[in-house]
């Protein structure tokens, strides 16, 4: 435990969250870390797990760099009677503690208090805004491409265009994406329907005059080699029928027969017809 009487004492978690480029992190509640259930499986992923955990919780931990004179709080040490060779050095312990805290953080932000803390940061636009013009400054949400640490750095997810972006500042290129995880953004959007609402307003605002490539006023066919590729990724259901179909697809494979599939493409029919007229000479 932190020794009393030291007025300038800063808890480890606070130090971590205030460190350079750590401003995406929220402080994890001490109770959350002290509950063993929340840490299930982490001991296999983090070297010097016990020492790292004690570091995060501000217990006194022996390191290989310590000499006996520097240990003042000898009576209350959790790590005892270990040979010096078994102890981590300070750099190793610091790395393990960062890794462990990051993995706990990824779990914490999917719990209710964690989600609330992250939502507050989201509200304040602390993660930045979507660079896409049609997203109209939609706030971004940190996300990991994988839950395995050491694979990818943190990315930012835009709930409006459903795309992910690299953070605008290179300072975040050292932050592991697994410290935020793949689950968090979806959960945040579902827990706070206001976010989906903000997206809907933006989508409806821009749907009318959707930007598309044009040549002398004619739209370029989507199938053309210079056409707007992957446009379907940003398409949203508009009519009631499309919305129903979207809802059916979200949780199950729709059992439509072939005829109805042909009918469903009618939404795009006018666009294709348009292009057929303009490219009529090519088709014949
Ligand atoms: Zn966006």
UniProtKB/TrEMBL annotation:
Designated name of the protein: Casein kinase II subunit beta
Subunit structure: Tetramer of two alpha and two beta subunits.
Molecular function in Gene Ontology: protein serine/threonine kinase inhibitor activity
Acidic residues composition-biased segments: 256-276
Region described as Disordered: 254-284
One cellular component (GO) term of this entry: cytoplasm
Example GO biological process: regulation of transcription by RNA polymerase III
Function in brief: Regulatory subunit of casein kinase II/CK2. As part of the kinase complex regulates the basal catalytic activity of the alpha subunit a constitutively active serine/threonine-protein kinase that phosphorylates a large number of substrates containing acidic residues C-terminal to the phosphorylated serine or threonine.
Gene source species: Suhomyces tanzawaensis NRRL Y-17324
Family stated for the protein in its record: Belongs to the casein kinase 2 subunit beta family.
Source domain of life: Eukaryota
């Amino acid at each position: 435990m932190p020794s009393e009487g030291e007025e300038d004492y800063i808890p480890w978690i606070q130090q971590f969250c205030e460190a350079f480029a750590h401003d995406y992190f929220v402080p994890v509640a001490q109770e959350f870390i002290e509950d063993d259930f929340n840490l299930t499986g982490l001991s296999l992923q983090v070297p010097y797990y016990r020492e790292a955990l004690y570091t995060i919780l501000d217990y006194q931990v022996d390191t290989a760099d310590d000499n006996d004179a520097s240990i003042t709080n000898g009576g209350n040490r959790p790590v005892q009677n270990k040979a010096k060779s078994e102890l981590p050095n300070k750099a190793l312990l610091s790395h393990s503690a960062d890794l462990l805290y990051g993995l706990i953080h990824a779990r914490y932000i999917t719990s209710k208090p964690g989600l609330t803390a992250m939502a507050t940061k989201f509200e304040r636009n602390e993660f930045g805004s979507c660079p896409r013009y049609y997203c109209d400054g939609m706030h971004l949400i940190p996300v990991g491409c994988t839950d395995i640490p050491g694979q990818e750095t943190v990315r930012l997810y835009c709930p409006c265009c459903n795309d992910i972006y690299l953070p605008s500042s290179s300072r975040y290129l050292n932050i592991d994406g697994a410290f935020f995880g793949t689950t968090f953004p979806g959960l945040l959007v579902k827990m706070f329907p206001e976010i989906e609402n903000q997206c809907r307003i933006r989508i409806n605002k821009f749907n009318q005059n959707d930007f598309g490539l044009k040549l002398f006023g004619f739209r370029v066919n989507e199938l053309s080699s210079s056409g707007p590729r992957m446009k379907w990724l940003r398409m949203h259901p508009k009519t009631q029928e499309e919305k129903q179909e979207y809802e059916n697809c979200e949780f199950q494979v729709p059992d439509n027969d072939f005829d109805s599939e042909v009918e469903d493409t009618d939404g795009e029919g006018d666009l294709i017809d348009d292009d057929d007229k303009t490219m009529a000479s090519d088709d014949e």
